[in-house]
């Protein structure tokens, strides 16, 4: 009896597989695929000896290999509040290399062009001004996470109970093009931080 695998294509999520040296391992964004451009014939008599020529490897799903962003507190947004809208902003610290300043400016940028009258006017039935809640997600360069002063960042918000703050890999470190010692520069690095502010009750 013969086993025919014509233009063999095997997709898998995880586990152990056996690959013939003639086959090519290719990866796509969502899965690994093993393919051969020509048919393979395996007879029941030669099947066992042919398999011994294979080289076993371990394949892990692509999603499992992706870097998980560092989270300081619970993920944002989550079901701890009913979401009404989202404010987004960006902040920079061109000189002085202070990532907290960049994060504070990002938050200020996010809330500065918005007005939220619904809570004070009682436009939401059964919801008072004191029930306004916030969740904050900051995109900060990974190497700067530990330098971030979250208490200072939270001080930017004049009202609303901040439920949690999540810090993920994001933002940017780039060159400002010039080192200005009188402004506290240690190098030419400019820090950029992104933020999303989730507002609800």
From TrEMBL:
Note the InterPro entries from the entry: CHP02058, Tubulin/FtsZ-like_C
Q: Which GO MF terms are attached to this record?
A: GTP binding
UniProt keywords, alphabetically: GTP-binding, Nucleotide-binding
Name of protein = 50S ribosomal protein L34, chloroplastic
The uppermost taxa in this organism's lineage are: Eukaryota, Viridiplantae, Streptophyta, Embryophyta, Tracheophyta
């Amino acid at each position: 009896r013969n086993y025919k695998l014509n233009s063999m294509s095997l997709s898998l999520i995880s586990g152990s597989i056996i690959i013939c040296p003639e086959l090519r391992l290719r990866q796509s964004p969502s899965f690994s695929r093993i393919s051969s451009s020509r048919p393979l014939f395996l007879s029941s008599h030669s099947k066992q000896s042919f398999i011994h020529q294979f080289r076993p490897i371990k394949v892990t799903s692509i999603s499992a290999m992706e870097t998980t962003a560092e989270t300081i507190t619970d993920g944002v947004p989550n079901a701890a509040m009913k979401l009404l809208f989202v404010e987004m902003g960006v902040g920079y610290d061109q000189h002085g290399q202070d990532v907290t300043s960049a994060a504070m400016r990002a938050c200020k940028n996010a809330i500065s062009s918005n007005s939220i009258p619904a809570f004070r006017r009682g436009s939401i039935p059964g919801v008072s001004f004191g029930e306004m809640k916030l969740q904050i997600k900051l995109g900060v360069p990974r190497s700067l996470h530990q330098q971030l002063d979250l208490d200072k960042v939270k001080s930017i918000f004049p009202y609303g109970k901040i439920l949690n703050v999540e810090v993920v890999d994001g933002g940017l470190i780039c060159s400002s093009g010039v080192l200005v010692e009188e402004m506290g520069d240690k190098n030419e690095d400019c820090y950029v931080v992104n933020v999303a502010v989730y507002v609800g009750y």
